[in-house]
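testing teh design pipeline on a random one, pls ignore if ur not involved
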């Protein structure tokens, strides 16, 4: 069986947690997928999630700016207008 790019990480998770090999692989796939999400898709998804929780756009765009700054690969700071355009076009 060919080695995958995350085999070492899967083995580490299996050794250090109660996860099985399949569970560890699924967790890694989910994390990689999460961090592979393109910026506009992330902004739209998070906006919709926060809107469902009843936050106002002002609160949402402030929170989004803070969240984006903590991403693994943070984009340059975006204005509220730039974020709004990603959501509403």
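output:
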């Amino acid at each position: 069986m060919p080695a995958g790019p995350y085999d070492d990480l899967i083995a580490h998770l299996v050794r250090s947690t109660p996860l099985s090999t399949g569970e560890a692989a699924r967790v890694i796939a989910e994390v990689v997928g999460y961090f592979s999400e393109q910026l506009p898709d992330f902004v739209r998804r998070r906006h919709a999630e926060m809107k469902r929780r009843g936050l106002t756009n002002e609160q949402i765009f402030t929170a989004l700016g803070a969240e984006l700054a903590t991403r693994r690969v943070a984009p340059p700071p975006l204005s509220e207008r730039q974020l709004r355009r990603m959501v509403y076009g």
